[in-house]
Amino acid sequence: MQLERLTKPLIAAAWAVVVLAGVIAGWSGYRSARARILTELAEDAGRCAAAFDSAQLRQLAGARTDQTTPAYAAVKERLVRLQAATPRVRFVYLFRFVPETGHVLYLADSAKPGAKDESLPGDEYPQAAQSPGLQAIIRNGLPATEGPIRDEFGTWVTGYAQIAETPSTMVDMPGKDILGLDLDAADWRRELFGAAATRGLLAWLFLGVPLVALLVVRRQNEQREAIRNLSAAMEQSHSALMIVDLESRIEYANTGLCQQIGYSRRELIGRNWREFRVADTAEELLADLAATVRSGHSWEGEWFNRRKNGEVYPVRGIVTPVKKRDGSLACFIAAFDDVTDAKRREAELREARDLAQAGDRAKGQFLATMSHEIRTPLNGIVGFTNLLLGTSLTAEQRDFVETIHASGAALIQLTGDILDYARIESGKLKLESLPCDPRECIEDALDLFAGRADEKKLVLLHHAADDVPATIIVDGGRLRQILTNLVNNAVKFTTTGEIEVSVAVVPETQELGDRRQEAGKPASPDSPLPSPGSCLLRYSVRDTGIGIPDDQRAQLFRPFNQLDATSTRKFGGAGLGLAICRNLVQLLHGDITYTSELGRGSTFTFTIRVPVAAPPAPVPDLGNLQLALIARPGPLRRELAQLATHWRAQPIEVDDLAALQGVPWETALIDIDEPLAHTLTAPAAPPTGLPPRRVTALVPLTLSTELRNALRTHFHLLLNKPAHHSALLSWLTGVRPAAPLAAPPPTHFGLKVLVVEDNPVNQRLMQRVLTNLGCKWTVAENGQRALEELKNPAADYEIVLLDLHMPELDGVAALERIRAGECGLRAQTIWIAALTADVRQEQRARVLAAGANDFLTKPLQLPELEAAFRRFRAARAAKPIR
Fold first, then answer.
1. Are 298 and 319 in contact (CB under 8 A)?
2. Which single residue of 378, 483, 746, 756 has CA 20 to 30 Å from 582?
3. pLDDT one-digit tens code per residue, 152-181
4. For position 869, which CATH number holds?
5. Buried b / exposed e across 712-751, counting CB within 10 Å, b at 16+?
6. Nearest-angstrom CA–CA distance, 59 and 53
């Protein structure tokens, strides 16, 4: 390539030299021809002048009267003969220079008598003064030339010669008789340019032919080298290459083809290519190949060849047609490779893929089975501990039961995390985008850990910016799960202080700047904005816990990892929470980050872009309401004061009830912990002195029912901590929250329930729970017994609680047979709630598609069963069930 770049300028320079040499040679030929013609013209004029006798010319007077004289006739005849003797001469004429007048007169010329261009004796030559050759010969008498010069008869090149001097009255300037020869300027130029062209062409031929020959030889050498390289490449190629004619006869075969098929080149040349193809394995393929290449297009695909030893093997290749200059086909080139090894590797990869998929299915089935097997006994443990906590227990017994209950809840969370992680890893986790309140998600997550936080004396805070939309479109369950995991970690790793959860909208300009900084580009106001109707929410969970060491941050989001080996023993957990959070945030098209300082706490932040379903609500205006905040100084009082100020109230902060005496206020909010609750409800305790209707108390979630009932006489309303902002606002504005659509759970439902359950422990649990809810029940130990019960004409069941994993006939099969009408028309439309420890989404979808009305998971909590019964009642009220 480098040599080619150097050669091109050299070739161009050589051609430039050739052209320049031709131009110089042509110019030289032009000048030589001009000098030669002028010399010959002067010599011709001299020879013609010698043909005239000066004595005879003196007989001519240079007047019109000369035309009648014999001397004029003789001179005229001689001039005509001289012109005829020299073909290129157009005119021959005689001048006489008269010194006395300075005029040049015609004596005679070679024109035919009477011709329009004939000059008569005595005519004056008008261009004499502008004729340099004529003036020169007048001065010195030597032969001279001139031209081209234009006169009234045309443009001429003229040669002059003196014949003789004539007497003159001027001593120093005699008269002169002069002969002139005229050549046509066009003939003159043609001869000059012909000479120049001849000389230039000779130079170009002399120099150009060797150069052209050199270039042709060089091009031939390059082509031969290219052919040698191509031939070597074809011969050294591991692929099989061959050229076949239009009749499919092999014209060329490379070494690769010979080695692949087992024939020598001599055995292959001239044979038909079809002899080596296995036509019966792919007749349609070969027909398509022939049709494609004969239409002038390349064909690519796979086929089978047969070796010399009879072995059939697969090949993959391409067949390309070669066209002549006129577009007709000349031959075909085929290039193909033996893909036996590739096919074997593909089969191995397919087998490995199938094994991996089978392993994934087995892993998923194993996790689902283990989850079911673990949740089934947990259903009994958690259910019976809930029942036991409702009985009279000693303090020690209650502590034991609460420990059992907490351990069961931890196992439930662990199995849920493992299943979620398995679904995420297998790509089977699907999101359900529905309207959701972003503030409510925070409050729900905090409510779950309010009891544990109160036990550790931690303050739970939350804040939502004014511009956060009232409703967004997102999978609210997964958003709550992210917040729940982050709050769980914050509570777990924080011993003293506070935990704060906040949400805000990231301004678009800041978002664009962040994105461009990540890309290494400066932010620009001209950058495209995100799509309208959406916003970027930033959630933050801040704690004052132990913090994260720098050397252990790399493993923070890895599954089944904790900060160090001692964390698992001290704090518990499988290390899946943050891994699940990161994957869920990514599924929501967001990002999660964190900052931490060892010994001072951590802040986890994640952002998600969500569609906006309802704009932000306006900031409330409490009209300068005087709100007394009775609480110890700290983060809770600070949050409540800031919130009241933001709602345009006037917070009055005091440390205790005594400090409120003498201070004007309209309504009061008091923070009550368990010691203060005991003090206020003691038998000998003095009254608070506060009007109950104007005071609301914030109480811990773990406060006993006895203490709550005792406190109600002192306060208008008891709100659990952390207080929901909407509940606080409703109290301050005097507006009560709208009543829920569902009726409050009654003490007794009075339903007749068929329990289809094979596990004896769960049978006993459901019997006891249903009895407590005022329901009548019948137990069927498998699906077949359930069908028999429902076929009984006297059966008047209203609800079926159907377990899914049972012997003889499982729940799904029993459900399908019931809905098919096998148990009668009334049973076909009965309300069926599936009850299972298999919490997979695909299982839920399968059961609901089979005809279940509800789906409940084990371990079943009492509130969940009550909610299911309320859903049944609401559905029956809307549309009676036969």
1. yes
2. 378
3. 778 888 899 998 888 777 767 788 889 999
4. 3.40.50.2300
5. eebbbbbbbbbbbbebbeebbeeeeeeeeeeeeeeeebeb
6. 10
Whether 521 and 439 map to the same domain: the answer is yes
How far is it, in rounded angstroms, from Cα 624 to Cα 641? 13
SS3 for 730-761 is HHHHCCCCCCCCCCCCCCCCCCEEEEECCCHH
Q: Are residues 717 and 777 in the same domain?
A: no
Q: Which of 687, 706, 733 marks a domain boundary?
A: 733
Count of beta carbons in the 10 Å neighbourhood of residue 224: 10
Strands (E), 293-353: 299-306, 312-323, 329-338
Do 606 and 585 touch, CB atoms closer than 8 A?
yes
Please choose, from the candidates 387, 460, 332, 357, the residue with its C-alpha nearest in 3D space to the C-alpha of residue 765. Answer: 387
How many Å apart are CA 183 and CA 42, to the nearest integer?
12
Amino acid at 671: D
Picking from 171, 159, 21, the residue whose alpha carbon sits closest to that of residue 93 is 159
* Boundary-marking domain end, from 563, 590, 614: 614
Identity of the amino acid at 29? G
Domain range for 485 is 430-614
| Residue 818, SS3 per DSSP | helix
Task: State the DSSP string of 824-850.
Answer: -HHHHT-EEEEEES---HHHHHHHHHH
Beta strands in 46-102 (DSSP E): 89-98
Rounded Cα gap, residues 294 and 202, in angstroms: 52
Token couple for 596: 């931490």
- Token readout for 25 is 């040679």
Rounded Cα distance, 562 and 575, in Å: 5
CA distance to 276, 381, 833, per residue, from 857 (Å): 66, 14, 10
CB under 8 A, 24+ apart: contacts of 126-131: 126/151, 126/152, 127/151, 128/103, 128/104, 131/158
Amino acid code (one letter) for 461: L
- Residues 6 or more apart whose Cβ sits within 8 Å of residue 366: none
DSSP state of 600: T
Return phi, psi of residue 520, to 5°: 75, 25
Q: 701 and 454 in contact (C-beta within 8 Å)?
A: yes
What total of structural domains would you count in the chain? 5
Pair 22, 137 in one domain = yes
Beta 471-474 vs 434-436: how paired, if at all? antiparallel
Q: Are residues 757 and 871 in the same domain?
A: yes
Pairing of β 695-699 and β 717-720: parallel
* Three-class DSSP category at 445: helix
| 415 assigned to some structural domain | no
Clarify whether residues 40 and 150 are in a common domain.
yes
State pTM to two decimals.
0.50
Co-location of 541 and 484 in the same domain: yes
Q: What are the pLDDT digits (tens) for 659-703?
A: 887 788 889 899 988 888 888 888 766 666 678 788 888 988 778
Compute the distance between CA of residue 679 and CA of residue 51 in angstroms, rounded to an integer.
Answer: 164
What does the alpha-carbon distance between residue 753 and residue 764 come to, in Å, rounded to a whole number? Answer: 14
Whole-angstrom distance, CA of residue 737 vs CA of residue 759: 43
State the Cα–Cα distance between residues 478 and 468, nearest whole angstrom.
Answer: 19
